[in-house]
Design goal:
With about 180 residues, the chain is mainly α. The protein is built from seven helices and four strands, in the order αββαααααββα. The strands form two sheets. A two-stranded antiparallel sheet has the order 1-2. The radius of gyration is 18 Å and the shape is globular.
């Protein structure tokens, strides 16, 4: 079962943290952190989008599809290429739904799922069209490749200690095995 500590909140923005709900996305065994409607609802609540009611399997599927569309857009931005038109259309569609419900404040029982997804999509579109897009970096670990916000401009790996540790060990071994310059 997923616990709060399994979720990553160090990506620099809610939409980037959504990308981290699947770890090792490009490895042989991706880690799905929102694999159940309950886990998806818990994640939404932890990022400030407590949704009213329970999530259905279809609701979870919508959240996961938004995540994957955002992943494509984030990776396209880092690679300085145009995103897949279907991913862009999907994110724009989410952004256009119920965005107004966010500004009226959450109801005591939470916000509609459409409003939560709209808020996440709007945040992504604003960042991807503004100057902060230049601060997006992709983790150098081949099985991770998480896109995160790097305000230092010096990071090679995502904030995960595991990625940084593996990357540093690999770089050290490469230096040790490299012929000397003598």
């Amino acid at each position: 079962m997923t616990t709060e500590t399994d979720f990553r909140f160090d990506g620099g923005a809610t939409w980037l943290n959504l990308l981290a709900t699947q770890g090792q996305s490009f490895g042989t065994r991706p880690v799905e952190r929102i694999g159940t409607p309950e886990a998806g609802r818990r994640w939404l609540g932890l990022v400030g989008f407590g949704v009213d009611g329970e999530l259905s399997a279809d609701d979870l599927d919508r959240l996961v599809r938004l995540r994957e569309a955002l992943r494509e857009m984030a990776m396209a931005s880092v690679a300085k290429r145009e995103p897949d038109p279907e991913a862009l259309a999907q994110v724009r569609e989410h952004a256009s739904r119920s965005a107004g419900a966010l500004w009226s404040g959450p109801a005591p029982d939470g916000v509609p799922l459409d409003a939560a997804l709209a808020g996440i999509a709007v945040q992504a579109l604003v960042m991807l069209q503004g100057p902060d897009r230049e601060l997006l970096r992709q983790c150098a670990e081949v099985d991770c490749r998480w896109v995160f916000l790097d305000t230092s401009g010096r990071r090679h790996w995502c904030p995960s200690p595991a990625c940084a540790s593996r990357g540093r060990v690999r770089a050290h071994r490469a230096r040790q095995g490299a012929p000397s310059a003598d």
